[in-house]
Amino acid sequence: MLPTAHYTAFIKRRAAELGFMYCGISEAGFLEEEAPRLENWLNQNMHGQMAYMANHFDKRLDPRLLVEGAKSVISLLLNYYPPEETQQPDDTLKISKYAYGRDYHFVIKDKLKELLHDMQQEIGEVGGRCFVDSAPVMDKVWAKKSGLGWVGKNSNLITPGVGSFYFIAELIVDVKLDYDGPIKDYCGTCTKCVDACPTQAITEPYVVDGSKCISYFTIELKDQIPREVEGKFGNWVFGCDICQDVCPWNRFAKPHHEPQFNPHPALKDLTRGDWQEITHELFSELFRQSAVKRTGYAGLQRNIRFVTDDVPGATDAAAD
């Protein structure tokens, strides 16, 4: 077996042992097709207050500017779809499924570091960096290039027979490997995600205006939530899964096997009234290591008031 084939097989086998659903590899290089798309998206201010999306434009398009001598982008998927018994009932306030358990940044970064260490043990000197949604890396694009799925009309990566309820992470390394190729788009004529979005954030198939997304309003936006979207959030107070929940491909989603993604036992039992009366102490207990901490206690309170609309000042700023 050629060294590249041996190394590639080792990486994919070890990734599976660490719990990743899939591993795909593509050659590091400039994302020529994405450059004009990203520029146009930014020029239309579809990133809203997410100023970081406009930073490091060149690095976002070329991983060789992030890792010296980069030759390969290893893309990995980690399932977070919760078992049915841990999901929140529809009649209570809801947070996105990805935030049920321990913050994925910590969970995945640990796994990536272990994979990189194992590569160095098996291959020898390997230079590289781990990325988990924390640097200018276009993770969905790289996952698509490496054959892990296609980018759907809701802008999420979708994998045949799996759906889209997973995290995407990367290892960018200076080792040449065997590369995978992309698969075709299987969205077909379906527009369920486009039709279901209550804020019309999917402005056209494959184009999402991030500044109109419920996830943006409830997580990224630190100012007032605009009154024009009042009544459109349903029960969502942190993130939103609507465009994934309606996607036909997610009927194939299977429960994850990562204990760290299990929610606090009390989370699924919170009633609407419990959410409205949540204290800082309970917030800290429920979401001690959760991604929900990103919005802060004051931010979550703002979101709850906006959705329940029973307390004056529902659009107060979310600053802690």
UniProtKB/TrEMBL annotation:
Cofactor(s) this protein cannot do without: [4Fe-4S] cluster; cob(II)alamin
Similarity remark: Belongs to the QueG family.
Gene Ontology process terms (BP): tRNA queuosine(34) biosynthetic process
Catalyzed reaction equations: epoxyqueuosine(34) in tRNA + AH2 = queuosine(34) in tRNA + A + H2O
GO CC term (a single one): cytoplasm
Protein name: Epoxyqueuosine reductase
SUPFAM superfamilies the UniProt entry points to: alpha-helical ferredoxin
Species this protein is from: Hymenobacter lapidiphilus
